[in-house]
Amino acid sequence: MDSAGGYVDYEFVSDFYDRVNEFRNEKDIPFFVDMAKQIGEPVLEIGCGSGRVLVPTAKAGIEIVGLDLSNAMLAKCREKLSSEPVDVQNRVELLKADMRDFDLGRTFKLITTPFRPFQHLTTVKDQIKCLNAIRRHLDNDGRFILDIFNPSIPYLADETRKEESGEMPEFEMPDGRKVLLRSRVPQQDFANQVLDCEMIYYVTHPDCKKERLVHSFQMRYIFRFEAEHLLANCGFEIENLYGDFDKSPFGTNYPGELIFVTRRA
Ligand SMILES: C[S@@+](CC[C@H](N)C(=O)[O-])C[C@H]1O[C@@H](n2cnc3c(N)ncnc32)[C@H](O)[C@@H]1O
């Protein structure tokens, strides 16, 4: 299993990624676009993936650099950008790099991590390396937004998650493939707070051939105060902690999200 959330090893994920996300409430897109408008440019998105957030940000007139380790996800992002007007394309730079160790030789007004790429780092050592690299790339008056999920205790204790389940209806790809997504958490390492996750794609091709494709990846869950100590340890001061992308305060809704808006301490 790779350490980039399976996005390097399982290239097929990039094909389905945007379609799958359409089924969830993508409230994070307007949140990150608005924060970029408010805080300013340039923006650096860590783990930009297919450009789900990056492309709307560039379309809003904001200069943005996207960094990701997966060739397949970056290719998807490039493909999407190629159908945008030239001025939008010119606002974007895409880079293949590891969030644990990068040096872009410049700083940014805003650095973001939409949809939890940080949680693919499964050790404290890697988390600290990443936060140190982010801090080195942040303007003195810049902001860093850490987006992670708030671990739900009932969810972690729910043994039924070992079995495949899912509510998303089957969807059709432009090439005629029909895809049914199911997921499961076959194993949890409670000592290290690491979940082994699987996204399972049942694909039916137009010629009726069937495939079962499994995206296996690990995610580390991080509790609120653990994240606060980690951020403080790495030189960040928390300005706001939201529990959702509508900016409601953390704690309003359980489990909600953990969205830290931070600045250099
Ligand atoms: C869940 S996707 C999020 C993509 C995008 N930010 C979004 O909101 O849709 C996680 C992304 O993080 C990237 N990633 C995971 N580990 C990484 C690493 N060590 N360095 C850079 N990118 C990484 C993956 O390749 C993937 O594109």
Summary tags:
265 residues, 2 domains, N-terminal domain of TfIIb, alpha/beta, 8 helices, globular, 31% strand, four-stranded antiparallel beta sheet, seven-stranded mixed beta sheet, binds S-adenosylmethionine, Rossmann fold
Briefly, what is this?
With 265 residues, the protein is of the alpha/beta class.
Strand order of the largest sheet: 3-2-1-4-5-11-10
Q: Major sheet: size, sense and barrel closure?
A: 7 strands, mixed
Please state the CA-atom Rg, rounded to the nearest Å: 18 Å
Q: Could you tell me the mean pLDDT?
A: 97
| Fourth-level CATH superfamily of the largest domain | Vaccinia Virus protein VP39
Structurally, the number of domains stands at 2
Q: Could you explain how this protein is built, in words?
A:
With 265 residues, the protein is an alpha/beta fold. It is built from eight helices and eleven strands. The chain has two domains: 13-151 and 222-264, Vaccinia Virus protein VP39 (Rossmann fold, 3-Layer(aba) Sandwich); 153-220, N-terminal domain of TfIIb (Single Sheet), CATH 2.20.25. The protein has helices at residues 13-22, 28-39, 54-59, 71-82, 86-90, 124-136, 153-156, 224-233, and strands at residues 43-46, 64-68, 92-96, 108-112, 138-149, 171-172, 178-189, 194-204, 210-220, 236-242, 257-264. The mean pLDDT is 97. S-adenosylmethionine binds next to loops.
Give a topology summary:
Layout: H1 13-22, H2 28-39, E1 43-46, H3 54-59, E2 64-68, H4 71-82, H5 86-90, E3 92-96, E4 108-112, H6 124-136, E5 138-149, H7 153-156, E6 171-172, E7 178-189, E8 194-204, E9 210-220, H8 224-233, E10 236-242, E11 257-264
Parallel strand pairs: 1-2, 1-4, 2-3, 4-5
Antiparallel strand pairs: 5-11, 6-7, 7-8, 8-9, 10-11
The protein binds S-adenosylmethionine (SAM).
